[in-house]
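Are you able to produce any protein sequence you like plus the matching backbone structure tokens because I've never seen that pairing?
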Amino acid sequence: MATDKRGRKLPKGIQQRYNGYEARPMIDGKRYLIHGKTIAEVQKQVTDLKYKLAHGLFVDKKKITFGEWFNTWMKEYKEGRIKAGTLAAYQKYYNGCIKERFGNVYINDIRGEHVQRLYNDLVKEEYAVSSIKVVSAVLNGCFSQAMKNGLIERNPINAATLPRQTEKKSRQALTKEQQELFMEYAKESYLYNMFAIMLRTGMRSGEVRGLKYIDIDKKKNVIHVQRTLKYLEHKGFFEDTPKTHTSKRDIPLTKDTLAILEEQRLFWKFDIVKLDRYLFCNENGDPLSRERVQGEIDRTIRRIHGAGYEFDRITSHVFRHTFATRAIEAGMQPQVLKTILGHSSLAMTMDLYSHVMEDIKADEMEKIESAF
């Protein structure tokens, strides 16, 4: 029977090692190594091990880093199963937020407090809560699959708490006066027709930039929204499916919208009109980037400032909110607006209604003043 450094007898199967104790139990023909600071701790671990083996709960932990597992997870479980844009976003958040902290750490050494510290650090670095949620989703996907594969016993994400959502910034939409002012000074821009279509349809930037001649269906009198245009540094421009399954939709054509689209068809005076050419492009027929569109918006605003008017900087997404605002003001029903905008849920559309109603409720109160 083994003894400790003082000559005292130790329980069967336990030996003293340095400042702690260890056991090497043989179970079902396989040897296991257990370390602990005290005899009681080692005995408990042996008991737990036997229970897990008997109930199929034991995980034979392999030395694999989180970075190695992330690459495996992306290649074997995500490529070809999620959209290219989503795949790129996962890689972006891993490179920017996760890799430095967890990349070289063994996956079975990452605990809940480590994930919590990551969340806290991202808050200090002023990441938006929405971005931290994407980081959490990437981690959760990795760890969940690792559990299924028997690499870890527990998902440390469950032991961490996401930061609270701060008060949402109010959605920016142009007033009717601002809308008219912008379009007046946008007449000098080669993207004037694009801005006009976005204001009249509520289409997203990528959807408009990915619009082709073949998407204008004059027989059914609709615009078929079938793709979104994206750009990746190492891939260039590529077409992706719309944001959600409800984003693939048909938007009714009005006479005004059709006239603008016809004008755009003739704008560049290309010798050959290709049905698969992007409707909104540059002078060479090449696709437009988000940055180029933003550059034209900024140039238009500079012209507005040069004329002596105040005008805040906006992005192309403001046109989408402006369309929604005009639609709500005109009395469009929520379900109809939902299908035109391509929202995945009615709650998203109703959130817009709440925002617009907040702005116009004072005017509505004025209407009933005479009743009192």
About this structure: The two ends are 98 Å apart (CA to CA). The first strand starts at residue 14 and ends at 17. The chain has 13 helices and ten strands. The CA atoms of residues 145 and 348 lie 31 Å apart.
